[in-house]
Design a protein that fits this description.
about 575 residues; alpha+beta; 5 domains; 7-stranded mixed beta sheet; 5-stranded antiparallel beta sheet; about 25% helix; elongated; transmembrane helix; transmembrane; membrane
Length: about 575
């Protein structure tokens, strides 16, 4: 608070000196003649300084602006212009005119910055380029519970909160806690008077992001500094008071450590140039119980924090990367190589996803600026801890459908039930670029998971869980004649079995052979990888090498039919 008071006093004094002349005169009549008399401008100077200081304090306190002197440029321009038009005379008038022109030039520099720093913005967010993401391990479960569904379940569990009428559910976000992917949502104050009466919020909700059958759990953890608190207890204002000169971007987010203790964090960075653009450099963390504040550079962020880079900052970086590949003017007129990031993300137009190691990334796909075009130009994954991003072009020989196209397919598929998709994310399933999308009914309840090929929209499958949908999708790919590349980390196993039943089905240029062994296990072989499987008959003895994926039909890698000596 002392920093803000000092800043306001100095700003008020500077603005008053710019606006109020040191020496002024007024015309008066004496003995029938007009003459000029000096005017005492000291009271006006003092009054102006006090007024400007009060206004500066109020604006910076309530708007949480950074207290860099460049942030005062609009007020400086206004004060300088007023001073130039004042009753100053002689050299002072000339000096004030020069000051006003300098202030106007600086204002023009600030306002024109977007026209000239487009190349710098692009360089600040330039991404590595690859063709395709690595194949998803089908034995894992993607974090695919849609946030709208999780939020609905948390609202229905709100009765667990003491003094329920004081509070409401806060912003939902995903993270990894103790190795599990979960949704976190703080309990927030329901208004100003509820804050006065409640003083602290009681805790937060947590729910699995991979198991839709999981029930939300309320965790008690009192928090005084929150986004819904007021005045000095508002967490973003508390951060600003502790770090008056930092440039913040994005909302404060709740992060939970492995002991269940909550922390509010917010990304900070620097302007690209002239108070325009943003490049993330680190975070500020606040203990919401005590108000203790710490600043971390982006490379020193604690391990438990998954989303050090705010989704708003990632969305902004995506827009720079898509628009400014050839500068500012090309983004408006020629639009060569321009690509627009999707707005289908769940957090500030991006969707958080996790890789097989538990590392969180923000996903977004890019489409053409041309209207009524639903083909995807590529997609990006941004490391949520470092901000480093990779752009994937996809197979350039194929045309990929974008996220909007996937949502339209779901809408048409379930048009009678009026179901819709939410949170489409592109995965590499079995070597095929594929959209995985949760499907919700009109009330926001999860109905199924829909998977559709980005290159071949006619190939799709849906089921009650992501893993069940994956199994059906694998079969759909094989029936469609696509090459299925396994990416499972499941261990290879060997077995000697006797065939009890066998079923053969044509799938494009190959044949799928389903084998039921006498021990009850089922195996699936394709003549693409095991050509001689086409000769299997009931009663044959087989030596098989397969993957222990846990699927109903275990995929066969190699096989020898000992009955016929092959």
């Amino acid at each position: 608070m002392l920093n803000l008071l000092l800043f306001s006093v100095i700003a008020g004094l500077v603005l008053a000196l710019l606006a109020v002349p040191f020496r002024a005169t007024k015309n008066v009549k004496k003995d029938g003649h007009k003459t000029e008399e000096p005017v005492n401008t000291v009271p006006l100077l003092i009054g102006s300084a006090v007024t400007f200081a009060i206004i500066t304090f109020a604006v910076y306190y309530f708007m949480n602006l950074d207290r860099n002197w460049t942030s005062l440029w609009p007020a400086v321009v206004i004060a300088a212009v007023i001073g130039a038009a004042s009753a100053a005379r002689g050299m002072e008038r000339k000096a004030r005119t020069i000051l006003s022109l300098a202030a106007l030039l600086f204002a023009a520099y600030i306002l024109a910055a977007p026209l000239f720093n487009a190349d710098d913005k692009y360089k600040a967010v330039e991404m590595d380029e690859q063709v395709e993401i690595t194949a998803f391990d089908e034995t894992k479960t993607p974090a695919s519970v849609p946030p709208k569904f999780a939020r609905n379940k948390m609202k229905k569990a709100f009765g667990q909160v003491p003094n329920t009428s004081y509070y409401e559910l806060g912003q939902l976000q995903i993270q990894k806690v103790e190795g599990e992917f979960v949704y976190i949502a703080p309990v927030e104050f329901a208004g100003f008077f509820k804050w006065i009466n409640g003083d602290t919020t009681p805790g937060y909700f947590t729910m699995s992001a991979t198991d839709s059958a999981d029930n939300p759990k309320f965790v008690k953890s009192e928090m005084a500094y929150t986004p819904s608190s007021y005045f000095h207890k508002n967490v973003e204002r508390h951060m600003r008071m502790a770090e008056p000169g930092l440039i913040f971007y994005g909302d404060a987010q709740l992060e939970i450590d492995d002991e269940g203790k909550p922390h509010y964090i917010r990304s900070y960075g620097k302007f690209i140039s002239a108070r325009n653009g943003f490049d993330v450099k680190g975070i500020v963390s606040v203990d919401p119980a005590t108000g203790k504040t710490q600043r971390y550079a982006i490379g020193d962020v604690p391990e438990f924090i998954d989303g050090a880079v705010s989704p708003e900052a990632v969305s902004l970086a995506n827009s720079y990367f898509g628009k400014y590949v050839h500068g500012f003017w090309n983004s408006l007129f020629g639009k060569k190589d321009v690509k627009l990031p999707s707005d289908e993300g769940t957090e500030a137009n991006v969707s958080p996803v996790f890789d097989e190691t538990g590392q969180m990334y923000y996903f977004t796909d890019f489409t053409s600026p041309k209207e009524e075009v639903d083909s995807m130009l590529g997609y990006a994954l941004t490391d949520a801890r470092t901000g480093e991003a990779t752009y994937y072009t996809g197979n350039l020989e194929e045309s990929y459908m974008d996220s909007q196209g996937a949502l339209q397919i779901i809408e048409k598929k379930f048009i009678e039930k009026k179901w819709s998709g939410e949170m489409p994310v592109l995965y590499n399933f079995y070597g095929e670029a594929s959209w995985l999308t949760p499907v919700l009914d009109q009330n926001g309840f999860l109905q199924n998971y829909f998977i559709v090929s980005a290159a071949n929209p006619e190939i799709s499958a849906f089921a009650g869980t992501p893993n069940e949908a994956l199994k059906l999708y694998k079969t759909a790919l094989q029936r469609g004649g696509s090459t299925v590349d396994g990416s499972s980390e499941a261990e290879e196993a060997q077995a000697t079995i006797t065939v009890q039943r066998v079923y053969k089905e044509r799938a494009g240029d190959f044949t799928l052979v389903s084998v039921l062994a006498e021990d009850g296990r089922s195996f699936l072989a394709s003549t693409e990888t095991v050509p001689l499987a086409v000769y299997i008959q009931e009663g044959d003895s087989l030596d098989v090498t397969y993957l222990e994926t846990g699927e109903l039909f275990l995929p066969v890698k190699e096989m020898t039919n000992t009955t016929i000596g092959q």
